[in-house]
């Protein structure tokens, strides 16, 4: 079970879309036999919490359990970080009310909630909700020492993947035709004076184009500019 869950997390490293991240969360949850799952990355704010990312197999299924999640999401004592908190609710143990009714409606026996603190204490948290049928071992799972840490590990990887996907791709450096030409001659050892005579412009113009190339490539000499241009496939 644990091996299968860890194996399900491997594709996160190469995930290129939120859909792929969602599939990983789905496979990870199924490894524990969950019939429904939800994973929310929550950013804490001074006034209210904001859901950074939410992955669930069926939209809105966990709304009835939000209050239970909020109880677990309450910040811990100052200086306490890395906390992992769990709560297990079963149809048999719950008093009559909305949560019990919702579990029955979903043909579920138990709900396992887990909140894992992430990053700086009180900054970000991940909330897992896993729903189980009767006899699928939710109670047994909740007591496994490694489950909370495994879910914490999964949530950390999911957050990293989400942040990576949200970072805008860096625009590729573009050199003008003259800038590339001047660098090309520099790459074969030509001086600015020699390059000027080869392409029919003044030495001052060559140095002007080289200066522009230095700025675009974030370097300060010809050798570094040539190396960077080659690395970026510009020469």
UniProtKB/TrEMBL annotation:
Protein name: Transcriptional activator protein LuxR
GO biological process, one term: regulation of DNA-templated transcription
PROSITE patterns to which the protein is assigned, alphabetical: HTH_LUXR_2 (PS50043)
Annotated HTH luxR-type domain residues: 168-233
Pfam families the record matches: GerE
Record organism: Pigmentiphaga humi
Keywords noted in UniProt: DNA-binding, Transcription, Transcription regulation
Gene Ontology MF annotations: DNA binding
Keyword Coiled coil among UniProt keywords: no
Domain of life of the organism encoding this protein: Bacteria
This protein's record includes keyword Iron: no
Gene coding for it: luxR
